[in-house]
Amino acid sequence: MEKETVDARGLSCPQPVLMVMDKMRSLGKGKIEVMVDTDTAKENIVRAAESQGWQVKEIISEDMEYRLTLIKE
Amino acid sequence: MEIKNFFATRKGIIGVGVFIGILASLLQKLGNPGNMGICVACFERDIAGAIGLHRASVVQYIRPEIIGFVLGSLIAAYLFKEFRPRTGSAPMVRFVLGMIAMIGALVFLGCPWRMFLRLAGGDGNAIFGLLGFIAGIYLGTLFFKSGYNLGRSYSSYTSVGWLFPMIMIGLLLLYIIFPQIKGQQKSGIIFYSIKGPGSMHAPFLISLFVGLFIGFIAQRSRFCTMGAFRDLILFRHTHLFLGIISLLLSAFIMNLILKQFHPGFSHQPVAHSMNLWNFAGMMVAGLSFALAGGCPGRQLFLAGEGDADAAMFVIGMITGAAISHNFGLASSPKGIGPHAPLGLIICFLACLFIGFSMRKK
Prior knowledge:
The structure holds 2 protein chains of 2 kinds.
Chain A: E1 3-7, H1 15-27, E2 30-36, H2 39-51, E3 55-62, E4 65-72
Parallel strand pairs in A: 1-2
Antiparallel strand pairs in A: 2-4, 3-4
Chain B: H1 10-29, H2 40-50, H3 64-79, E1 86-87, H4 91-108, H5 112-120, H6 125-145, E2 154-155, H7 158-177, E3 186-187, E4 190-191, H8 204-221, H9 225-235, H10 239-257, H11 275-292, H12 296-304, H13 308-326, H14 340-357
Antiparallel strand pairs in B: 1-2, 3-4
């Protein structure tokens, strides 16, 4: 499965969710890796992904950043 | 997976809205002005007056709620390891948007928080403010859809995130060093209203602790009155919207219990019935909150968790309050200020300039 990346670090609301929603829409299904650096953005993206039927497979936190893996088969 | 943040759940955001509604009504009962248990715009304006940035003698007081919001958020951010000192996402634009937001809010006489409290207190004029607010946010979402973006912020020194909370601690110290003297307009270098809304306030320590508590839970829940409508319009997400609905309902029920509900359009406390301008003021404010990514409360909570760009927005609002009162843009219960129409038009054009010229794609 090909992996697409969205780098939303440093962007404020609603930018990260807009970017991820656009990506989910254009891909339809697959795997997206999202990078964010606030808990607000992380929570918003989890909520947005679940509302679109995507699964949050993994959340890795590494020094003040989060790497989320979203999947839809 | 990781420990869930309870406040970020559906129950959490509803709980936070309920708490804010109840506490706002109680603060009014304890002395804050009518339908103004909490008003971020009004309270920042009172702070601007207290330090002499404007000389409208009826609206001068160091409001501890504002200090509490920032410091409560700071404490929550540290406890939950979310303090992120950051800056660099067009701070100048955020300053200007803050000024515009305040000018618009003071034409209506209230920030979105107070708009809901005015509705919960029976003030029908606030309906026009609400319609304007939604219209402004809708315009903002159109800019977002066409690529509007203020760019990334970058992590910075811890002290960058501390500067704004330190200013809040400074205000607290000023209050302690120059406490209010009954019947006196000035205590040392600090101004105090002896009549008008600025003279009406709940006991200082109660206001401070309520502010700290709300700052804490709002940081955890990301409560935002602008985001509530923006997410609904942009994504059909109802999460934040549940927060403001529960605020409205809980304040309404509390007002009924405390006999603070007085439905009508005329003689509402600290309000006017020039409803075209109530609409226009909140439309301009709503648009600038949308372009800046948060309502005035949310900007305070962000500033508390280290976002120095949000702090610039707040300082812009305080500056805007001074300009509003010095230039005759701010409304009073008699109606709008003499220069409000021209001021609002300029502010609206400035928002369009920002929205159109700061697009990536």
